[in-house]
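Q: What would this chain look like folded?
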Amino acid sequence: MAVPLPNRHQAQEDYPRLKDHAEELSAYDLVLEAELQAVASSEQSATTNLIRARIVGWLLLYPVSDNPAPFVYEVVSANMRGDTTGQIYELGRLYMDRIIPLFQQHRPAAARQSTHPSRPSFDALRNDIVANMRPSPKDHKASKAQALLRDDFRCMVTGLVDIASYAARLVEGPRPTRTGRTECVHIFPESLGFLEGQDPEKKNFIATAYTMLNRFGYTDIQPELAGTKIHRLENVLTLATGMHEEFDQLNLWFEAVPDKPHAYCVITHDPFIPGWSVPQQVTFTSRYDIPLPSPRYLRIHAACCRIAHLSGAAEYIDKIYRDEEDLPVLAPDGASAPVLEHFLQRLVTRVDG
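A: My prediction, written as structure tokens:
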């Protein structure tokens, strides 16, 4: 459920960073005004504009990176360009249309790859790693195999032992209490690594997503994940099937525990109520010195999840996709206008600096 932005005084009390950064406070004031105008508006776009304003506001209160200056400048400079409120709505729109769908993946479960490598491939890989050969996965299958080795053939959250690995006698130690399907989960989706061969709409989506990440100071994400590097172990988790689905739907994320490397609070959000025991905290460890998931990548995913829910964007986008499925033709009364707007905007090229 969406949460209104706190007023200026409450924001300064709850988010001390605003007290120490005058420009960020000025930017927040502009966003509060945009939120107020959206609440008071009777226009059809008022609901989406309210979500967009709150996205920008929560991004100021929960910065995606330690250096939010480029994003803050984007908000403050809107005041210089005129039509401040409209510029803030546009900034929120870009985030809602490009960054949130990047992680909130709407695709059928059957489309997910969950290949289980054969025993010989695991044996060869195990020998290579023991011989101090650092892995370099080039595709989904290799990435899954090496992640399973790293994660001791089990879900990194629940400890569920991968059933195929257990059947292949790859799991050491006593008989596990639970087995089940696990999947190779990319934090940044696989499609982000490959621009070649993509249709123009997809290329525009990916380019704009990277542009938005650049605005948050993450200028090195694109080269880190280009091509087959999207399968790097830093971008991969091993999760039970159900956990994978909720991770992709922004209902499960990991927030770093201060001063504890690779320790995370496990955050779940309604309507996800796990049917098994999920610990409050996990600490990721690696077998054979294989790289662990990147704290930066998990931080970006966590910020996206948190802000999507606080702003109401996650619920709104879910409704958009449900309406797309339920409305094969446009409704004559205009009820399908938000659906049409959302998908038409995805076709418009607006890739800024």
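The two ends are 34 Å apart (CA to CA).
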